[in-house]
Amino acid sequence: MRDEIPTLPTLSSAERDLIRLRREALVGGGLLSVPPGSVGVPQHIEKSWRRCVGDNVPVSSTEIDYRDPEDVLPALRRAAGPVLERLKDSFADVPVAMVLSDATGRIVMRYAALRRQRALMDRASAAEGFDFSEQSIGTNGIGTVLVERRPVLVRGPEHYNALLEHLTCASTPIVEPCTGRLVGSFSLACSIRDVHPLMTVMAGDIGRQIEARILDEAGDRHRQLVQAYLSLDRAPGAALVVDEETVLANRLGLAHTGPELHALLWTYLSEHATACPRRMQVPLSDGLHDALVEPVHDGGRAAYSVRLLSRRPDPRPQDPSPGKSSIGSALPPVPREPLHFLDDVERQLETAVRHREMVALTGAGGTGKLRTALHVLRRSGTDDPLVVEPHLDPAWYDAAGAAVAEGRGVVLRRVHASPSPSVAQVQALTARGARIVLTADLDAADDAVIGLVRQVATTVRLPGLAQTREHLPSLVQAMLAELAEPESSTRFSPAVWDLLVSWHWPGNLAELRNTVVLLARRAGGGTVEVGDLPDELRTPRRTLGLMESAEREAVAEALRAAGGNRSRAAQALGIGRNTLYRKMREFGIT
User: Fold this and answer.
1) Orientation of helix 447-456 relative to helix 423-431, angle to 10°
2) What CA–CA distance (Å, rounded) separates 432 from 36?
3) Under 8 Å CB-to-CB from 17, ≥6 apart: which residues?
4) Distance between CA 501 and CA 84 in Å, rounded?
5) Fewer beta carbons below 10 Å: N end or C end of the chain?
């Protein structure tokens, strides 16, 4: 299939005019205006035109989506780079461009030695970072080859978008030999005046060279991983080996796997593992586990072996049910609903409830303060609490007083907003026996509000989701469990988990809940694929360089040292508060 050339690459002026008229007739008349197979162009071109018409792809759009091309499958870059570098001299005096795309149609590499060829490609926005999928710009060598999964030739007006009519493009898919997974495409592109009859064969041959390098590299990498796995598998207990693309698990380790495991474990180890063996907690599909993590020497690329350790028994005593003897009881005690998914936050809340302290839940918007406040009141024995926002309801104090008289609890929500309740008002409600929980974003509060909260309550900060992504699978499963059938049976593909774990979740739990509910409603109990995700989630975040990583860590450390107070953190960093906000958004820090 690779070396098949179904059509001659050159077109006469009359042929170009005729193809243009046929395309315009199909676009203008619609899919039913011309019977399938009678448009008069190669079959793969007609099929692509019909897909584009059906998807309402613009015919003359000049606004092509752009995204930084740094984020791409590392194996594709490593394999293609040396091949294209070696061929640069051979194409130095040839008016042709070599173009590499990822599996989405995003151009990630382009070589064009001659100035006039670079200008030709630039006029068509055929440069690194631009989206050349069919959904973006219609029939073209990159997008169409990814749909057809076979070599294609697209000549002049066979392109769907008039912006590309002056180009001819011979393209071939790049497939990972071990798995058959489509990882990208390679194309040779030139002016319709500079077409060579062998360009399709040459594109296919270069594609095969890239695939051969992927195979060689995968073989070396897999041999290293298998050796690490075999040495680990001889030890008792569950064991896993993971790198940026693969997870190997022994029989006992399989009990801790799922479609989300690789994204979860690899992301966590990339951020927290060290160059020496270390005992640490690692996130797996069924929760956090103690493990011995050891780096694997894998030709300079990071990989880790993970040996799970025996779980320690829970030191917290379980109280027997009221009125029942704990000796000889046939029924185990009913576990209580947790106050929070993080153990540290759970312990702080448990202590405050046990000592009957007023709790103030702080943190950024969307971190789950209201839901946690309701859990705290239920644990305190208070049902049907009143939720009021003093800054929105001038009569909040009278309403809270009436709720207290009825024995109900009260949540004073968003007390950082003005006007805020006074210390005297909160203390007066407490004196009447009220069970009160406050919620506030102290980073957005003035000193008067901070003083109010610190005077009357024990503060417990709820972290942002970006800092607790290891809990993402359990949170998603809990959110799905709250839905009715068939939505509650919805599952996510491994590729979707990769994107969910890599997203920085600026809206925290509220954003995650909205996303999960939306996807579950659309999937209706099926499997969510990458194409079902919102656009922003399908766009991988740019990988930070060393300088940016150091800057991000400095910002995060300043916020930790300041207890989350952004004004003090900005002062410690020597930057303005607005600059700090911009850095936090840039680095995904909440």
Assistant:
1) 20
2) 79
3) none
4) 33
5) N
Here the tokens at position 21 are 């008229």
Q: Which residues contact 272 (CB under 8 A, 6 or more apart)?
A: 280
> Quick one: tokens of 224?
């290293």
Which residues are 130's β-sheet partners? 66
Q: Which two tokens stand for residue 30?
A: 């619609």
Sign of CA dihedral 56, 59, 61, 62: positive
Q: Is the peptide bond before 332 cis (omega within 30 degrees of 0)?
A: no
Contact assessment for residue 299 and residue 221, using Cβ atoms and an 8 Å cutoff: yes
- Residues whose CB is less than 8 angstroms from the CB of residue 582 and which lie 6 or more positions away in sequence, other chains included: none
Beta-carbon count within 10 A of 353 CB: 19
CA angle 304, 183, 78 (to 5 degrees): 60
SS3 162: helix
DSSP-based three-state secondary structure for 16: helix
Residues 66-108: tens digit of each pLDDT: 877 665 567 788 889 899 998 988 888 889 999 999 998 999 9
* Cα 275-280-284 angle, rounded to 5 deg: 110
Question: Is residue 370 left, alpha or beta, with left meaning phi > 0 and alpha meaning psi from -120 to 50?
Answer: alpha
φ and ψ of 277, to 5 deg = -55, 140
Q: For helices 494-502 and 472-481, what crossing angle results, to 10°?
A: 110
Q: SS3 for 332?
A: coil
